[in-house]
């Protein structure tokens, strides 16, 4: 579970190391068919600066949402914003590779400290699903989220 100790200067920060090269992890977070294994799919033209993302791991159907690409440095850094006009989420994903492994640093900027535990559990679940998508194992399910990530 995520604790307030994982807040760094008002940002939620999670790190995962995957036994895969940077190009493979980059593909898993940027190619629609690979993203579908753990988060959702996207449509549109990333060169335009935005895509429409449809999440596929939620309990209920989620309408497509616009994700704006604010920075893209292949294969090292991806920054996105999404959400409603009054609540925009800013995400940064940074990759660093070494010896066939890649460390992903995920940052959700300017998070309300009162929401950090639940938000961290959710993003942790997704990052573990990403790991399963990379190595071909079974991803954590919604039941796993309730019992393991939220501690229900």
From TrEMBL:
Pfam families: AHSA1. Gene3D superfamilies: 3.30.530.20. InterPro entries: ASHA1/2-like_C, START-like_dom_sf. Residues 22-131 form the Activator of Hsp90 ATPase homologue 1/2-like C-terminal domain. Belongs to the AHA1 family. This is Activator of Hsp90 ATPase 1 family protein.
């Amino acid at each position: 579970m995520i604790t307030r100790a994982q807040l760094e200067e008002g940002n939620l920060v999670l790190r995962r190391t995957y036994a895969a090269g940077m190009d493979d992890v980059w593909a898993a977070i940027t190619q629609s068919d690979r993203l579908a294994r753990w988060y959702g799919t996207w449509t549109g033209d990333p060169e335009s600066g935005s895509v429409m993302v449809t999440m596929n791991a939620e309990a209920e159907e989620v309408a497509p949402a616009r994700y704006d690409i604010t920075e893209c440095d292949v294969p090292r850094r991806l920054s996105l914003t999404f959400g409603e006009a009054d609540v925009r989420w800013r995400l940064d994903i940074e990759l660093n590779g070494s010896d066939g492994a890649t460390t992903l640093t995920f940052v959700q900027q300017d998070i309300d400290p009162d929401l950090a535990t639940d938000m961290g559990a959710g993003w942790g679940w997704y990052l573990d699903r990403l790991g399963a998508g990379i190595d071909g194992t079974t991803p954590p399910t919604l039941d796993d989220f309730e019992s393991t990530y939220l501690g229900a």
